[in-house]
User: Fold this.
Amino acid sequence: MTRKLIELPYRQDELKPWLSEQVVEWHYGTHHQGYVNGINDAEEKLEKQREKDDYSDTGSILRSFTHNYSGDVLHELFWNNLSPKGGGKPKGALLDKIEEDFGSYENWRKEFKEAAKNAGGWALLVYIPRMDKLHNVVVDKHDQGAVWGANPVLALDVWEHSYYHDYGPSRAEFIDGFFDMIDWEDVGQRYTRLS
Assistant:
């Protein structure tokens, strides 16, 4: 089945002033679309090598698939975690779990900000069923540092294409603005489904 780019849950200009319409257009329409294209390309190449019984390029094809598939999943989460009416704090079971696992919402936020400052790709809040715990993780690229069995519930893309046009080297300002755009209802519903 051919993978398709998701529809954004808002217009491309609705994330202003945090992100300009131009950045959303490039990030969504070029970068995210590129990961979707990469999945489809890798799947096609895998099918062809099976037909030809020639597996000489398997390693590079599978690396491409992993990178692009992970990029697509994380971008879908990122776009859905945002809302023009976002901000505030989580509520209900998600807030209770954040307070249980991090001591307080403020502790979680400080740790997540530091993860985002240090990531070479993504800062993620994940739920780890095996530990029954929420955990922040730092992921480089889309797939380096991912935790097996962990389910992302909140994603912040900190690749330079996410912010550099609007913020230049001020990644910290971009990260601060992210908290005003989080759709905590979406994050809370995802956590509830996974826990």
Remarks:
- The first strand starts at residue 121 and ends at 128.
